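Q: Sequence in, structure out?
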Amino acid sequence: MSDVSVGNGVVVDCAGVSRTYQEDAVPVHALRGVDFQFARGDFVSLSGPSGSGKSTLLNLIGGLDRADAGTIAVDGVAVNALSESELSDLRLHKIGFVFQSYNLIPVLSAQENVEFIMQLQGVAPGERAERAVESLASLGIGELAHRRPGELSGGQQQRVAIARAIVTHPVLLLADEPSANLDSGTTEELLKLLRRLNDDRGISILTATHDPMVMGYAKRRVVLRDGAIVEDSAN
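A: Exactly. Output:
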């Protein structure tokens, strides 16, 4: 991987990032020269109307898509300079993902879902099991370790997804609409949990959201419109 200097305390550095898609042969400018820095230990919400570019920016930072122009660095690593295999390695070791659809493997138990990413990392079975149990217990669902996703509520599935995302101690947690399928009570529980992980463990969290409640729990709010940042303020 190519390392670049982004300064002490900066976990994400985006400079002049642009991304254009083609829709029915018409160019759609999802991002237009975005400059964005994200400090280690921060909790930032990316908000804005549908089509504003927030999910696109999240996907570019996570290495799930590639920018057309500009540079992106995650923990000092130049994402746009990486091969596909190096991107996979970056995601595996440095970035945790939480999606609105949870993305749990239905035939595996909660514990096995959490263990899966460590299996990809080559962690020994005994250590995998121990860390998975600890991660689930730290989120208050240790007693559900042997249940499959279909036997869990939406909120419980989201906690399993978070346990899986943080068990590898990533430098960055990316959450795309994490409250989309949850009721308001469950959403508040989830946000208190994320804020606790941020405050107590120093986990850096960047979330794309439409939800005012999510924005309220973040420490910083970044608003996008038409592919550009129009507001960047502390909560």
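The CA atoms of residues 111 and 215 lie 30 Å apart.
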